[in-house]
Specification:
This protein is an alpha/beta fold. It is built from eight helices and 29 strands. It is globular and about 55 Å long. It is an enzyme of class 4 (lyase).
């Protein structure tokens, strides 16, 4: 009798821990064990032992894009204003708000320059997969697969998703490039579980995933999410949910994250507009790596981006994430991002709002901040950009947190730590080109968030 009681106590205690340890998997069966093992092998393969090389390559691409944009801007001013420079306009751009642009198509950063402003973009959608930079640069998504057109915005059957729905598309075994037949508002009844080698491409339609569950990228690799609006995500009850064409299982209650990346590698999130999710906008945890978050627009949220969820999960030391060309906008509070263990390159982002802090971390993460613009809030207690969570100065003085070429406005300040100078590195001339300073951030992030792309028209 006592033995049976102990077994029950152990069982329910373990079930209680499962949501934390396994992110919603209620029954960690042989299928999920195999996926976890495969995902960890992919993580090891995706991990770059020399992350500085990736940051140098990104810096070189930024430099090239800025030269191209400078020539575009001169041509535009000459054609439309009869002049090539405007000091007043420059000053407004430095301190002013992001406003909707109504001029000719401009691609202002190296990722966008790779595919934007071409009228035939819709005929060459998969070119996008060649454009990612940073730690997610090997992400291919569904490039090698066929197109799948989502025609139905419903999400009614979790076990047997209806063909033509987004849920039916993402559980297929084969690589797929998923597009939308028309504008859609999709309310997910339960979390959307994406399988490997998928691209969800919202260009050409106004696609909102809202007022329901969020997106889960768990124990997979090669996923691209592009040009989506994700907002007002709420927890859902869980239950039996199909996660592939030949498997379904019990899921516990979802947290209400907009996008949850769990034990996955080679993930690219680009041109996504996000706000007002119950938990985080983006979480990447449990050994996820090779991730690029770019050209996104974040507003109206508390915990924005979490990169590493546990101070005790040392496998996150393999986590490598690039955060580039994003706009952290109105009514944000903290975690832009909040980092643990790994290596994080935060480059050429525009931080126009925060209420507590912008960048935080624990467990000695390496954070390289280059060419960002930080505009502090008026609150005198919130001027510091950085926050070492739960660490004493004695503990964090060796953490490598560097600021290079950043701009600090309205009293913003970045508390650096680690060696006074970076370690001496040997690279070729292209790799050593540094990122442009933060005076260029306004133009680099001008078109952050979901774009209004129409077929046959430059996007």
């Amino acid at each position: 009798m006592e033995a049976n009681k102990l077994r029950l106590v152990f069982f329910f205690s373990f079930v209680t821990l499962i949501p934390t340890l396994l992110a919603g998997i209620g029954n960690f069966d042989d299928y999920w064990k195999k996926r976890e093992q495969q995902a960890w092998k992919k993580t090891l393969a995706a991990y770059n032992p020399n992350p500085e090389n990736v940051t140098s390559d990104t810096n070189h691409s930024i430099h090239k894009a800025l030269i191209s944009h400078k020539n575009q801007t001169r041509a535009y001013h000459k054609a439309y204003h009869g002049k090539t420079n405007s000091t007043a306009s420059h000053r407004r751009n430095m301190m002013g708000k992001h406003k909707k642009y109504s001029g000719p198509c401009l691609a202002t950063n190296p990722i966008d320059r790779c595919w934007r402003c071409k009228p035939d973009w819709a005929k060459n959608r998969k070119k996008l997969a060649n454009c990612v930079l940073g730690f997610g640069h090997q992400t291919q998504g569904g490039k090698r697969g066929r197109f799948y057109i989502v025609t139905d915005n419903s999400d009614d059957d979790m076990l047997n998703p209806k063909p033509g729905t987004l849920r039916h598309a993402v559980i297929q075994k084969e690589p797929l490039w998923i597009v939308f037949a028309h504008d859609m508002h999709i309310k997910l009844n339960q979390e959307l579980l994406i399988t490997s080698k998928k691209t969800i491409d919202g260009r050409g339609a106004n696609v909102h995933i809202a007022n329901g569950a969020g997106i889960t990228i768990q124990f997979v690799e090669d996923v691209i999410l592009h040009n989506l609006h994700i907002h007002n995500i709420i927890p859902r009850s869980g239950g039996l949910i199909r996660d592939s064409v030949d498997h379904y299982g019990f899921r516990t209650q979802s947290d209400g994250d907009g996008i949850s990346i769990f034990g996955s590698s080679n993930v690219w999130l680009d041109h996504i507009s996000m706000h007002e999710c119950t938990d985080g906008l983006i979480d990447a945890i449990q050994g996820s790596t090779a991730i690029t978050i770019s050209n996104c627009h974040f507003t109206h949220h508390n915990d924005v981006i979490l990169l590493g969820a546990s101070d005790s999960y040392s496998k996150d030391k393999l986590m490598q994430v690039t955060v580039a060309f994003n706009h952290f906008g109105k009514e944000l509070i903290q975690r832009m991002p909040r980092c643990r263990w790994g290596f994080f390159h935060v480059v050429n982002n525009d931080y126009t709002h925060w209420k507590m802090y912008a960048i935080g971390g624990s467990q000695h993460p390496t954070i390289i901040s280059q060419g960002n613009r930080y505009i502090a809030p008026d609150d005198p207690k919130a001027k510091e950009i950085t926050n070492r969570n739960y660490g004493t100065e004695e503990e964090y003085r060796t953490w490598v947190w560097r600021s290079e070429g950043d701009m600090f406005l309205n009293g913003a300040h970045f508390k650096t730590s680690g060696p006074a100078a970076p370690p001496k590195l040997t690279y070729n001339k292209l790799e050593m080109i540094k990122a442009k300073p933060a005076t260029f951030v306004r133009r680099l992030t001008r078109f952050s968030g979901a774009l209004d792309c129409k077929k046959g028209v430059k996007c």
